[in-house]
Amino acid sequence: MDPVAKRKWPRSGLETSVMGFGAAPIGNIFRPISEEDSAALIKAAWDAGVRYFDTAPMYGHGLSEARCGQGLRWYPRDQFVLSTKVGRLLKPRKRAEINFEPWVDGLPFEPVFDYSYDGTMRSIEDSLQRLALEHIDIALIHDIDVFTHGERQPEMFEAAMAGASKALLKLRDEGVVKAVGLGVNEWQVAHEAIRRQDFDCLLLAGRYTLLEQDALDGFLPLCEEQQVSVILGGGYNSGILATGAVPGAKYNYSLAPEPIFERVRKIEQVCQEYSVPLKAAALQFVLAHPAIPTNIPGVRTVAQLEDNLQTFRAEIPPAFWAELKRRELIRQDAPTSSVDIL
Predict the structure, then answer these.
(1) Is 257:237 a contact under the CB 8 Å cutoff?
(2) Catalytic site residues?
(3) N or C: more exposed end of the chain, with fewer CB within 10 A?
(4) 203 has which bridge partners?
(5) CATH class name, domain 6-259+279-314
(6) Angle (nearest 5°) at CA 104 between 44 and 149
(7) Would you say 26 and 41 are in contact if contact means Cβ atoms under 8 Å apart?
C-alpha cells in the first residue's frame, strides 16, 4: 500500500493521502515536543508526500493549531487538506489557573465546551487566526460522545445537532469549508449523527480496528450507502496494536485487560507465521473498508513518521487475512482483500 497515494472523497471531492498526519502529539500530549522538532516533523511529513493534516483547538489548548499553521503556511494551499474541530472555545487565562492534563506546556487558554451556533462560528474564526491559513477544508464537531461527557452526553449531542451542525452546514453551503462532520470516540454516536444531519465525513477514533469491528453492524454500511467518508484515528487502540502484548501495553488509554492481551497474542502468532508486522496489519486492515479513505496515526518524532511510512508499504499476503478469519480473530464480513486495499 502506498501511504501517500491520494483517495478522493465522494461527497466533497476532497483528495487526501492514505496516511494523514494526526497533530495531537505536537500539542504536547503527555510530554512536550520542542518548536524545532514540531517544525521538523511537519516538514518531514510534507517531504514524504503526506497531504492531510488534522488538528483541533483542544490539542495543547491551541498549540497544535498554531504549530500546524506555522509548519504549513508557505506550502501551496491547494496542495493539502486541513481539518480542525469545533465544540470548545479557548478563553484566555493565567497558566497557573489552568489544568492542562493530558497536555504539557499548552497555550494560556482554558477550553470551554460550546456547541452553540454562535460558539461554532466563533470557533472557526478563532481557529483561522491561530492557524493563519487562508481556509479550513474540513470542520468537525468534537467529542459529543459518552467518553467525553458521560451522563451529560445526550444533552451535549442535542445541543450540537441544534447549534453546531447548523452552523457548519451553513459554512459548507457558503463555501467557507468544503466538508463537515464530527470527530468522536464511539461509532454509535456517529451513526446517530449521520441519520440526523447531512454530514460529509466522520473522524472515528479507535472503534474500527483489528480488535474491534462492531462498527460493521450498521454504521459502516450506512456510511458507504450515504458516501460518508470515515477518517480513522486510533488504529492501534491507543497502543497494544503497535507494541504487541507486552507488559504495560495500553488499550483505550488504560492497561489492557487479559482478554485483550490474549486476543493480541493470537493475532501476533498469525503475524509470525506469515512474516507480517503487527503494526502493518493494524494500519492496513482499516483501509480495506471502502468508506475509509485515510488513516491518521499520531507521531512524535521523524523516526516514528518514517517507520509508519514503511509500515504502510509492508507486503501482506491475502492468505494472512484469510487465516485471521479462519481462526475467528477478525469478523468474516470485514473487508480485507487485496482488491479492496489500494
Answers:
(1) no
(2) 54, 59, 85
(3) C
(4) 183, 231
(5) alpha beta
(6) 105
(7) yes
